[in-house]
Structure formats: structure tokens, C-alpha cells
Amino acid sequence: MISFVIGTIFLSWGVGQQRKQSAENPQYASIDGEPVTGTEYEETRARIIERYKNKYKDFDESMIPDLHKRAVEEVVKRKLLFAEAKKKGIQISNKELIQVTRLSFPDDNAYQQARKTWPGRYWKWREQEIRDELLIARMEAIITDGAEPTNNEIKEYFNKWYQRADVSHILIDPASYVSEEKAKTHYKDFKEDFKKPGPIRARHILIGVRQDASAQDDQQAKAKADSLLQQLKGGADFAELASKNSNDASAARGGDLGTFTQGMMVPEFEKASFALEVGQTSEVVKTMFGYHIIKCEWKGEAIQQAYFEVREKIRETLGQEDDALGSASTAAKRIAKEIKAGTQTFSEAVARYSDAKGSKKNQGRLGIIPRGFLPPQEIGTETKKKGTDTYFAMLQEEVAFGRMIAPQFSEGCFSLKEGKVSLPIKTPFGFHIIKVDRFLSADEKRYEKEKDEIQEMATSQKKNLFLGEWYKCLKKKAKVRIGEGFSS
Asked: What is the phi-psi region of residue 285: left when phi exceeds 0, alpha when psi lies from -120 to 50, beta otherwise?
């Protein structure tokens, strides 16, 4: 719960401040005659998006079905939870509030420093936000008390969501309906947007720790890095501290790494170093090598990217515009109709039209995929780097977000009959025409290997059912009206 509170705070703060002037729109929903405002809707929508961003690496808003409706429903649900908490006299003590707030900072010194420097009105908002989240968590815990699934219910969950299908598909990517002329015009009009950071020069201090180190060794390394950071904040010389303490060969040069560009360092280090201004020192950064403190010494000018470097990115962006989406949708419908009419076979259509580079090599076949989640050991950075030559990287490029099969694809696939071909189904990847060769029961080996995770997800599902029933009941009592365009 704490991580959720902290993970959404800053985004919500920004939304609330930016939309304050245009928020009074009562058309979203009303509870006992009191309208849901635009601010409440936008803040809640931002929370939902942030949750997905934290959960899925390659996130796209279109992967959230009915985002607008869900945001309105969640606002209403939160308001009802607050009202029930008030009726029951549930409160969050100041002591508990301070304890949770402190946990969002690396240490007490950082917390105290923020207390001194951040504006009072921000702290007032932030503490109220945290208090609200804790209150909601407590109410949900009360409502879902006793919602632990039985062994049979866990197995039922597994049998449903880990069911498998041997599936093929044709992918029609809207980006392929963006003309070269339009893409080049976009590049010329927004050329300044296609610059990447230039080279930088930086120093670092590394407190090395092995990836398989014990928790105690890891904590000791982190504590030493934190101590060095405090010394730097107190005015200590970076080069001198690096020479005496860094576990890297650069220690002999005062931690100087020389000049480097993007793509040369591990991701965590790169992200932190390129975010620094000249002369600025980072917080402690964890990588596979240990704990780093980074200081930016120099920054070169941003580098203009050539059209060929950003062409695909531009086409992908423009592919989300109505004209490209409309053209892709029309083409997908026509292709599906031709397959059903028998004027071309599924395999022929794959060869002629599919934009899925990986599966196209095998007549559109994705292979055997689960209904919900891919096995955790199959997804990793190594597979991603190899592109479509690697099976699980192919799935992530065509139908999956990390471990999760795109919900729209999964729903369309598992509602088909064996041997049948679907109508076009839209996902963030484009429009899919799906063919299922056969269905298979869940792989029992996964049940044993992933039992804890399966139990956790089955528990979450049961709690959501409890909350759903409670919400449905209270919604009727509270005379909730959902605005036109948002009701289901």
C-alpha cells in the first residue's frame, strides 16, 4: 500500500494544480446530488495510468480498457469509501501519517531537509493525500476481511487464467498506413523534438557489492554510500572521496569516467547521470555493480537525430491518429471478410498483409500462449535485445506487455471456437485477426512453480469481488448517477 501512495503522489499534485481553473464540470457523475468534478476525475485517471506504468514496462494508455469509465467509477468508489469510513469513525493518527511519509524518503536526513525546503501548502496537500490513501486501504481491509480463497477456488482461478491456446494471427499496424510524405513533414515541423542528449563527462564513487550478496552486506554498502553522500552535501571534495573510497578503477583519477554518450552505461546509471545539471551530484544510485554517487562535470550540446533514425517512431506516433487508425481498421475488416468468404486462406493473408515481423515468418503462428500471464522466467532483458529472433521477445512486440497478454487479444482469442477466425480486434499493437487451432488446459507445472503468485492473484480477485458487491449495494443506496458517455 505504501508504495502505491508514494508512487502516485507527485503526478496527482501536478494534475490538481494544473487543472484547478477548469475543473468544475459536474457531468461525470453525482452522488446524492453532489457532482464529481473535473479535478477529481483527472487526478483519479492519472492514478490509474501511474499504476499501470509502475506495473508494466512498455505501457500504453490504450491497454487500459474503458479508461474514462474506470476513472469515473473509481472516483465514486473512493467517495463512498470515505463516507463509510467517516460513519464508522475510522481515522488515521498523526503518528501513523508521519511514519508513512518518512518511508517515502531514503533516510531521515532527506525527510528533514524536504520539510525545511518544500512549500507548506505542498506538505498540507501531500499529507492529506497520504491520509486519504491509508484511510481507503483500511476501509478496503475491513470490507474484504475473510476474503481468502479456498484451495479449490485457487485451482479454479488457475484453470481459467492459465488455460492455453495454440494461436496464429495477422497484425495490421496503423503505422504502416502513414505515408512517407506525412512522416517527413512531421519530422520537419517538429525537428527540435528529435534531439538526443549530447555527450557528458562525469565522475562517480562506486561502493561495490555483488549481485548475490547477503542482505547484511548489501545494507552495509548502502550505508557507506549514504554516509559519503552526506559528506559531499557537507562540502567534501568529490575527487578526494572517490580516490579514497571508490571500488572502481576510476578511483585513481578521482572517479573521472571521461566522456560518454547514451547507450554506453547500464540503464540505471545512464538515467541518473544524464538527468544531472553540470556541477550537480546525484543521490545514491543502485546498479548491478553496487551503489554509485555521480557528479556531472560537463555536458555537450544536444545531437540532432537524422530522419532515418526516428522514422519508425514518427510513424508509430502518427499511426494513432484517426486517419491511419481508420485505414488500418478498414483494411483489417476487408481481410477478415475475404478469409471468411474463402477468397483467400489465412496463410495467404498472413503472407500478403501481416505487419507482425516475427510470427509472419511462421505463417502467423504465435505458438501456445496462456490466457493471462507468461511464465516469469521467460521474460528478461536478454530476450528483448535479440528482437524477433527470440520467441518471448516476439510476443512482447506483437501481443504482450511484459508478462501480460494484451487483455483485448486474450478476450478475443479465448472466446473463439477451435479452427475459427475472429473479426478484427484492436489492441495497442494494432488490429489483429486471430485464428485458434486448439485449446489446451493449464500447464500443471506452472501451478507448482508459481503457486505463491497464483494464490496472491486469486486472493486479489476474490477481494475485488467482495469490494464489487459492496460497491454495487452502496451505489444504489447513495443514489449514484453516472454521466452520459461514462455509464456502462
From this structure: beta
* pLDDT, tens digit, 9 for 90 and up, residues 261-313: 988 999 899 999 999 999 999 999 999 999 999 999 999 999 999 999 999 89
Ramachandran assignment for 402, one of left (phi > 0), alpha (psi -120 to 50 degrees), beta (any other): left
Instruction: Classify 38 as helix, strand or coil.
Output: helix
Helices (H) and strands (E) in the chain, counts: 20, 15
d(CA 80, CA 28): 16
Please return the burial class of 472, using the count of CB atoms within 10 Å of its CB with bins 0-12, 13-18 and 19+: exposed
Q: How far apart are CA 474 and CA 81, in angstroms?
A: 10
Q: Are 282 and 294 in contact (CB under 8 A)?
A: yes
d(CA 417, CA 420): 6
**Alpha carbon distances (Å) from 351 to 82, 169, 196, 331, 438:** 56, 11, 37, 15, 22
Tell me what the mean pLDDT of segment 189-209 comes to. 93
Catalogue all structural domains in the chain, each as residue range(s) with its CATH number: 2-149+457-482 (1.10.4030), 163-183+308-441 (3.10.50.40), 195-304 (3.10.50.40)
Nearest to 163 by CA among 464, 415, 380: 415
Q: What is the number of other CB atoms lying within 10 angstroms of the CB of residue 213?
A: 14
